[in-house]
Amino acid sequence: MQVHVLASGSTGNAVLLKFGPTRLLVDAGISARRIERGLAELGIRAADLDGILITHEHRDHINGLDVLVRRHQIPVYAREKTWEYIPCLHRLPLHCCNSFQGAFEIKGVWIEPFSTSHDAADPVGFAFSYGKKRCVLATDLGVVTPEVENALHNAQVVILESNHDLEMLHRGPYPPYLKQRIRSNKGHLSNHDAGKVLSRLKRSETMHVFLAHLSQQNNDPLLAKKTVSYFLSKAGCQIGDEVVLHLTFPDQTASLVSK
To answer: Were both Cys, which of 66, 117, 118, 142 would link to 88 (CB 3.0–4.6 Å)?
Structure first.
């Protein structure tokens, strides 16, 4: 299993997951050119992707979808309600557009979507299973519901939102309505809440956690890692042994290759 977070943040999100020979892209929120370049650096051609999975229709998750799909004829998977709000749908090749509701499989990878609490049409996270490997992506969620938490248990790799520091958001430059949106149950997950849920998760072996979708205005990577580490340590977790934390970035790839 390989995990490559090509970009993460409010300016765009894209994650490459490789399970055996199967290559999946979750979201295409940066330009097609950037995605192609990021994949090329990993020795992968965009045309070799087995599918693109869309979590929701916000621009920072679909910005490069139109060009990427038309150029390379890649299958795309999204919830039916999400498709209704994707503005480039009418330009995409019909044979590339696929809908899902429950669990489904792409070339040996079992994919379980789960609903998330965010201000989009029908947002989801994904749990991927391949052999004994399990990877879960849960970003853009204002609150961790029991459904989300259940999906996160016993994963070897977790990509979890750690969007903002509560104090930085409170003192930051955003207008009150935007601060309220971010703090709401349909907004984004704070460092504090990310740390709390991670401290509760069951682990059958070492869990690698990518802290994702960090705000450039209302967070700091080292602060996010420090806050999450505090809650894990408070729960008796050995950082670097039981849980390994990885930072993600808006403009560079963060990777993990697991045997």
So the answer is: 66
